[in-house]
Structure formats: C-alpha cells, structure tokens
Write a structure and sequence with these properties.
This protein is an alpha/beta fold. The chain has a single domain, classed as HUPs (Rossmann fold, 3-Layer(aba) Sandwich), CATH 3.40.50. The chain is about 45% helix and about 20% strand. A 5-stranded parallel β-sheet has the order 3-2-1-4-5, with helices on both faces. Helix 1 links the parallel strand 1 and strand 2. The chain starts with 5 loop residues before the first strand and ends with a helix.
C-alpha cells in the first residue's frame, strides 16, 4: 500500500514564505513527498455588525485564497504537481495543531525564520512553537534560515 507523505508549509505573506516554499519543493523533489499549504485567517472581533463582519470575513478569505494560489503556482512550477490547499479560520497555532492531527500523512512542517538581522524574533509561529508547543506536536519542525537563497537551497537538499 503506497501512502502519500506530506510536507506542510504555511502561507503567510511574509518575505520568508518563499524560502519555506523553495525548501519544501526541493525536499519534495528529492523525497517524492507531496506538499500541503495552509493559510490561517485570524478570527474577527465582534465589535461590528453581523453584515460588516461577513464582509470582512469574505474579504479576508479572498485575500487568503489569492495568496494560496500564488504559493500553489510556486509549488506547481517547481515540482510539477499541485499542492493540497487549506484555509483555516481561527488562531494560527491552534488551527495548525488541529490540521496536523487531522491530516495523518503530514510528516514534517517547514518554516523559514525571519531574515531581518535587526529582528531577534524568528517569527510569531516559530516563536510560539519552540517556546510553548513543540512537545505537543507529533511531527518534526524544520526551520530554514530566511536568508537562504534558492541556489543554496538546491545545493543543500
């Protein structure tokens, strides 16, 4: 029985997103793993009317889907296959953990750290995972330095 194994990447419109995607694509080509891309939509405050909230949710979803399509194109162009796409609404870490538990064939999460040398925080998701959540995950987390070039990634993978 041939079971597909997946690499999970988060689409978040950061500068580092493309580095994480490049690394995931390189690993996918070497290992035959497929790629899942997820984007998280933050919950909205209940400070507005239901109509305004619905409009804001729809706009956030449209933006998320546009970003997913950009990420999917990068993966498709690099690997020749379309990734699986997920849009999750809710707090990112909570939804990430739920997705990993739901999709049993995900076996690695690839993240890229903040490439800004003046910034000490590697990024909110990495920070949350390594300080509070890492022991509760069932998969390894691969953190790629955000300063890696496409050429360097192809050399090391």
């Amino acid at each position: 029985m041939n079971v597909d194994r997946y690499i999970l990447v988060i689409a978040d419109n950061s500068e580092e997103m493309s580095i994480a995607l490049e690394y995931a694509c390189a690993r996918s080509k070497k290992t035959g793993r497929k790629i899942i891309i997820v984007i998280f939509i933050d919950p909205l405050d209940d400070l507005t009317t239901q109509e305004v909230t619905e409009i804001m949710k729809n706009e956030a979803r449209e933006e998320a889907e546009k970003l997913l399509q950009i990420a999917a194109t990068i993966v498709s162009d690099s690997t020749g296959s379309m990734p699986i796409l997920h849009v999750r609404e809710g707090e990112a870490i909570s939804e990430l953990k739920k997705l990993i538990e739901e999709e049993k064939n995900i076996n690695v999460l690839v993240l890229a750290a903040n490439s800004n040398e003046n910034e000490k925080n590697p990024g909110p998701i990495i920070n949350a995972l390594v300080t509070k959540e890492i022991s509760s995950l069932r998969i390894p987390v691969m953190i790629v330095p955000g300063s890696f070039s496409k050429e360097y990634i192809s050399q090391i993978t």
